[in-house]
Amino acid sequence: MNGFGPIVAISTAILLVLAVRAIIVVRRESRQARGAPPGKGHHVIEASYFSGGGGGGHAGEFRVPKDPQEYARAFVPRQKDDKK
């Protein structure tokens, strides 16, 4: 059982260093503003996938509204006019 002592000590030290580093990163990132400020227009997100080899893949472009209300409306289902 004495052979496991150094392994346990090193593993504990590594976990402690990783935990301290994670806490530092989370605290630092919490002070930074996230996202983009609201406005007019759209963000353009390009997405592409190529499987390598002979001709496989997909490319596309997505437009995301900068206005929060317009963005939220995209997730609301449209109602049919014939329901009354």
Explained architecture:
The structure is a single chain. With 84 residues, this protein is an alpha+beta fold. The protein folds into two domains: 1-34; 36-84, no CATH class. It is 38% helix and 21% strand. 0% of the residues are buried.
Low-confidence blocks of residues: none
Average predicted local confidence, pLDDT? 84
* Beta-strand percent range: 15-25%
Helix-strand string: HEEH
Relative helix content: 25-40%
Instruction: Please state the CA-atom Rg, rounded to the nearest Å.
Output: 25 Å
Number of domains: 2
Structural class: alpha+beta
Shape: elongated
Strand order of the largest sheet: 1-2
* Biggest beta sheet summary: 2 strands, antiparallel
Question: Count of helical segments?
Answer: 2
How many β-strand stretches?
2
Distance between the termini: 77 Å
Descriptive terms for the model:
21% strand, elongated, alpha+beta, 84 residues, single chain, 2 domains
